[in-house]
Amino acid sequence: MSSHEAHAGHHHDHGDHHHEELPFWRKYIFSVDHKVIGVQYAVTALVFLFFGFTLMMIMRWQLAYPGQPIPLIGKYLSSAIAMDGILVGDGYNALGAMHGTIMVFLAIVPLAVGGFGNYVLPLQVGAPDMAFPKLNMMSYWVFFCGGVVMIASFFVPGGAAASGWTSYAPLSVIATTGQTMWLLGMVLLITSSLLGSVNFIVTAVQLRAKGLGFFRLPFFVWAQLVTSFLLLLAFPPLEAAGVLQLMDRLAGTSFFMPSGLVVSGVQQTQYAGGGSPLLWQHLFWFLAHPEVYVLILPALGIVAEVIANNTRKPLWGYKSLVYSAIFLGFMSFIVWAHHMFMTGMGTTLSTFFQATTMIISVPSVIILTCLIISLWGASIRYTVPMLFAVAFLPMFAIGGLTGLPLGLTASDIALHDTYYVIGHFHYVVAPGTIFAMFAGIYYWFPKVTGRKMNDLLGKLHFWGSFVFINAVFMPMFFQGMAGLLRRQYDQTEQLHGSLAHGLTTMSSWGAWLLALAQIPFIINFFWSIRGGTKVDANPWQATTLEWAAPSPPPHGNFDKVPVVYCGPYEYSVPGKKTDYCPQHVAMEA
Amino acid sequence: MLAQTTYGRWLPPQLSEHGGKIDQLIDVLHVFMAVLFIAWGIFFVYCLFRFRAKQGHAARYEPVKGLISKYAEIGVGVFEAFLLLGLSMPVWADYKNKPPAESERLPVRVVAEQFQWNFHYAGKDGKFGSTDNSQITASNPIGLRSDDPAGADDIVSVNEFHLPTGTPIYLRLTSKDVIHSFAIPTMRVKQDVIPGMEIPIWFTAKEGSESEKLREQMVQHFPIEGANWYKLRHMIASEDHKSSGGEVLLAKGADLGDSFVKGKELIESLQKAGVAELVMQPRHPLEVICAQLCGNSHFKMKATMVTHDAAGFNAWIEEKSKGVEFEDF
């Protein structure tokens, strides 16, 4: 009841949607409508996703053919990145650091949370908008400025940040101006995430439609809710750490700078010393491990929605999914130091962190098990979103399983900082999360535009992506086993690296072909906005509330305030005429 | 199981006394992962076919009773506990908590910097000379004090790590500038080197893993088809490679040249001359590398590791610390 009242009051606050027409710039640019902001986030994030991918494709040339000029674009690159078309060491490191930063903070998180969360969450809880629409607008524009600062950093003297996306001190503190830009950019991005997460939490808790109890929420909403708590609680330490590193760089403090440093033969007397490089790592990973779950939870949410819809049956173990997600969120705060096993950690601390790391794998296994058992007894429609959602499962499983040898300290000695790590987390985030994002785009595109994306192009996109993304990442496990280190400008400089080099070429070609496989998607995306088949409000015959709104939903979302009568996934209920019972339709006896 | 005698696709050769247990854990883990993934995959693929939408088939509303999944989950949990308590923790505790006795070990200080490894040996007197950062010069990279007699016979070896096999090596790692990571793939040794901290590690190279012997053990045959300089740039020919006319194109001990272009030309001429495969061995079979991004030339930061038998190592110490004046550094 209280949530319903909140609705009404909220409506009153920012005016009714039958209001006179807003000017273009208020409607589409500085909009407070969660749907416009969601689309802004998603489109910006997709551009960054493509940009981050391009950086990596350049790096993969240098890896496959070290010291040879980059074809096509080599001669256009700035001197901080390439000389005579050949990538330089600093340039490689800058591309690597920026690839990681852009993919995590400017592509995946804004797409998964800013894009899907913003667009879908208020609809799924039956709300007319986010709880704080202006805060929402501010969140997007602060994010946008963060992105601009990050991109601008490529053009400052010395080029962009080149100390890895992890920015370990002291390397990052003695680095060129690009690092200052990186830190400023991060402070903006973190601020944006904090604004967003408060909004999500309040919306999911306060603006639920009448009858929509917590255990009637779609799993996607649960995933976003847990994600928002992670962002809210884990990001502030990194924001503080970012400011401290800025101080070290600009104000001569020594938070992360120990005494007695000598760089290139020069004593670093400008730093008072006494700081700790490990402090940065703790603060960084205190965010960055929960961040992993920020990347994966919304993906699991999307996959759960798509699987329920396309198996035409309720998700198996809905409550286990919810409790697992909450437990995962909680545990993700106490595993961070497993990224630091090689820093000289003693037995006591490492015992704790490898134990928590093994424990956190349990809820992940439960979630995956629930999703897979949901297939049993189903009637699976192989729509394009379903193909991506189904492919997500084994990819995420590979990503999860290969985390085991890294999470145990003893095996980590051999595998730490090798390509095994790169393979592991990319399986979680690339064929894992990004596949889920694609599933989400194909699934909700009709809601946003009122039109469906083309099936044939979608299937081409799926099969091309599936084959080539595995060609990129599968070889990395073998190379990592062989000891090949990550962050190497020239992998062949070391004996064991040179002998494992053959697979690098395969991986690189996989990446370039993967780029080609995205062409059907790009064409499909833009063409379908105007040319796709027109569909009604609920083309997938789905049950959750977003499908109760018209497509595209007007400002204020619902024609009449929805009331919820049942759980989120009432598919194939025995004795019903249709195989789905929408949440907002009363199930007559 | 996964470790090789040569470098290749799986784990590199395992030549330390503690490394076998690490490899064993990696083996067990991968068998476990494979079993889990395959069993799970069979169920998954079966569902995808069996439960596809078709005429006359409806989805089932009632949830299946998940007993098997419950047992599977518990099984996974129990096995993970075994991995943790039975394998990983004891290996790690063994590796971290039992430093070799002072009387048995060879102490070496390692001072990392962008982009080289400095190895500091106590020399014949067994005493390390003290150091002072203000005395660091290009020829005295660790700042060894000239007024400390203990340092007079010390050895500072740049990018060359000499050690005896069969003797525990006790390293104290520190860095002058940024974080590096001291890694020896063949010894299953990896440790971050952090400025402002001195971190001890220790390991023992197996007897029989002397560089000279390894070079002979690591002879590999590479088909000339698909051979390239990138892959073979650190290898030298194990025998003369001749054309059918008997002309030596690649002599024993020679490499493929110092660039991709030269290597390509040489490989092409060998191919033209009818050589079917290259028989090669590493010039330096062991390397110390840097595993933590440390700047623009991070990838070049490596040291040659030379393992001797006890007599060979003593001879090296003798040669290096005899009559070496401090100024010569």
Task: Summarize this entry quickly.
The complex is a heterodimer of chains A (589) and B (329). Chain A is an all-alpha fold.
Task: Provide a descriptive summary of the structure in words.
The complex is a heterodimer of chains A (589) and B (329). Chain A is mainly α and 589 residues long. Chain A has a single domain (2-15, 27-254, 273-548), classed as Cytochrome c oxidase-like, subunit I domain (Cytochrome C Oxidase, Chain A, Up-down Bundle), CATH 1.20.210.10. Helix content of chain A is 62%, strand content 2%. The longest helix of chain A is centred in the N-terminal third of the chain and has 36 residues, at 89-124. Chain B is α+β, with helices and mostly antiparallel strands. Chain B has helices spanning 19-50, 67-97, 211-217, 229-232, 260-272, 310-321; strands at 106-113, 116-121, 155-158, 160-164, 168-175, 180-184, 189-193, 199-204, 220-223, 235-237, 241-242, 248-250, 277-282, 287-290, 302-308. In chain B, strand 1 and strand 2 form a beta hairpin. In chain B, helix 1 runs antiparallel to helix 2 (67-97). The longest helix of chain B has 32 residues, at 19-50. Chain B is globular. The chains are: A mainly alpha (589), B alpha+beta (329). Chains A and B meet through helix 4, strand 3, helix 8, helix 10 and helix 11 of A and helix 1, helix 2, strand 7 and helix 4 of B.
